[in-house]
Design brief:
Helices cover 37% and strands 16% of the residues. It is an alpha+beta fold. Strands 1, 2, 3, 4, 5, 6, 7 and 8 form an eight-stranded antiparallel beta sheet that branches. Helix 4 packs parallel to helix 15, helix 7 packs across helix 10 and helix 8 runs antiparallel to helix 10. The structure holds alpha-D-glucopyranose.
Length: 530
């Protein structure tokens, strides 16, 4: 029998904190007891502590250790528990228990517990039994909507499903799924699209909300911002946190004589919004949603050609590392603007999806126009960037020798000439990219390969997911199935929904965050296929 998903999730109060859908509060284990902090945009948890050193003791003064932590409650020996009464209220329940903790200014607090006490949040009267029953019902309802998966994937999928719930926060008037309450507290553009892919199975309206959050914040020139957060948006370099400027100055190269463009540079993320809209629509058809999204998707698509193609050759470039979504890739060692082969592959697919949407909306002429654009764009990509053996990456207008997983992304179009598609499939299955845990984001034999460094070698689930789709679309179902199987096994065996994995060991890369939204989303979506 497969384990019950609801009972399968154990919180370690470290990688998996005790937290709740809609709540910024995170309960973790500290050196001297439990601590509670608030997750906020670009703020370290050490700066948002609400309390530390929470310890419970029995009437004789013996410590009552945490017995178990589940999505519903932190359970202490002796029957006491910590529970969410609502997203801003944490309550302690128990009888004959002594609790002590400290406030951020060092003030010590204590109390003798006899019933239900508000530990954090507005004062109020709560019934322990009612709070527990409501928490259990909330989680039972959420897990009841988890897609079915194979028995060996239940624990990882349930943990992923829990991650998707607790990463939901109220942002800009909607419920937005943040990449992680550790370090990424906002809604990032392409993350939101990957999140929508998983949410469509359980709650299509919530999936649409992830996409609408960005369409709502479209800029007058048509671009979609990089981030929407509780204080506003990040849509050009003037919105970047100061620490990001320092980081970029350190690693972005100035080869080829390139200098960062003076003045604000637009910042967005790779164009995949029409792809995501169509995936949600396929699972849960909704013509009014398509009709509302379509004109905005068209404007977003045109932005790339109007603004993000500085040399005007019809093949747009990324004008900023963050717009590629691959911030630290060695592509950026060569200059501050670049054109890896993924961008124009995504734009081809977007044109095909705009065609599907136009067809669904009863606009066959527009659909035909989008399809001919997709065909012409593919021809241009092949004519200009296929050198006979591989697709090249340009940095600041010149070819660079770096070999990344993005070189394979033209498969995503499903429109390549058969011999070129076959060559990409062969490259993927060669020792440069294949191993027990494909796909390294930089080729294993590239001098820049580093198995631990962000986007410089580790496996990322979104890249694998897009390649799996591309392989299927291009007629390589066998390679796609093998890549899917290896991806699922890697995540299952590593024991967490990390941001990225070391492709040599299959373990969490040192600097990768945990509870990562798109890893959770795409793992569930791949696992749900049966
Ligand atoms: C990092 C990634 C980027 C992602 C963001 C939020 O900056 O490089 O692709 O969108 O985190 O997860």
């Amino acid at each position: 029998m497969s384990p019950d998903p609801h009972g399968a999730v154990e919180l370690d109060l470290d990688e998996r904190p005790f937290t709740e859908r809609g709540s910024r509060l995170l309960v973790t284990a500290g050196p001297d007891g439990l601590r509670v902090a608030r997750a906020e945009y670009e703020t370290r948890l050490a700066d948002t502590l609400e309390l530390t050193g929470l310890v419970l003791r029995d009437a004789d003064g013996h410590p009552l250790p945490v017995r178990a932590a589940t999505p519903t409650a932190v359970e202490f020996a002796g029957g006491a528990a910590l529970l969410f009464a609502d997203p801003v209220t944490l309550v302690l329940t128990g009888q004959d228990v002594h609790a002590s903790w400290r406030l951020p200014d060092g003030t010590a607090r204590q109390l003798s517990l006899d019933g239900c006490h508000v530990l954090l949040g507005p004062p109020g009267e709560w019934s322990a039994a009612a709070v527990r029953a409501a928490a259990e019902a909330r989680w039972a309802a959420w897990f009841a909507r988890m897609p079915a998966v194979r028995p060996d994937l239940v624990v990882a999928a349930a943990t992923a499903w829990w991650t998707l719930a607790v990463n939901l926060l109220p942002i800009a008037g909607r419920e937005g799924l943040v990449p992680s309450k550790y370090g990424y507290v906002g809604v990032w553009n392409w993350d939101a699209l990957f999140h929508a892919v998983a949410l469509r199975h359980a709650d299509p309206a919530l999936a649409r909300d992830q996409i609408l959050l960005f369409l709502d914040h479209q800029l007058p020139d048509g671009r979609l911002p990089d981030v929407v957060h509780e204080h506003g948006v990040l849509s050009d370099t003037t919105d970047l946190p100061r620490s990001d400027h320092a980081r970029l100055a350190e690693h972005v190269g100035t080869a080829n004589g390139a200098r960062p463009t003076p003045g604000p540079v637009p910042v967005t993320k790779p164009p995949l919004a029409a792809w995501a809209v169509w995936k949600v629509h396929e699972t849960a058809p909704d013509l009014p949603f398509l009709a509302a999204a379509y004109p905005r998707l068209v404007r977003a698509h045109r932005w790339w050609f109007a603004v993000s193609d500085p040399d005007g050759d019809g093949l747009p470039e990324y004008l900023h590392p963050y717009s590629s979504g691959l911030d630290d890739s060695p592509v950026w060692d060569h200059g501050p603007r670049a054109e890896p082969p993924d961008l124009n592959s995504y734009l081809v697919l977007e044109a095909d999806r705009l065609a599907d949407i136009a067809d669904a909306l009863g606009r066959p002429d527009e659909a035909a126009d989008w399809r001919s654009r997709a065909a012409a764009h593919t021809d241009l990509l092949v004519a200009r960037r296929w050198d006979g053996t591989r697709f090249t990456t340009l940095a600041a207008g010149a070819p660079v020798p770096v070999r990344t997983a993005l070189d394979l992304m033209p498969l995503f179009t499903g429109r390549l000439p058969a011999d070129i598609a076959a060559a990409l499939d062969r490259i993927l299955r060669s020792p440069a990219f294949w191993g027990e845990r494909p796909v390294p984001t930089v080729a294993f034999d590239d001098p820049a390969f580093d198995p631990e460094a962000m986007w410089r070698g580790p496996v990322w689930l979104n890249i694998n997911y897009l390649l799996i789709e591309g392989l299927r679309r291009s007629g390589f179902a066998g390679t796609a199935a093998e890549l899917r199987a290896r991806t699922l096994a890697m995540v299952r065996d590593a024991g967490g929904l990390y941001e990225y994995w070391n492709p040599l060991t299959g373990t969490r890369a040192r600097t990768a965050t945990s509870g990562f939204g798109w890893s959770a989303a795409l793992f569930v979506d791949l696992a749900a296929e049966g």
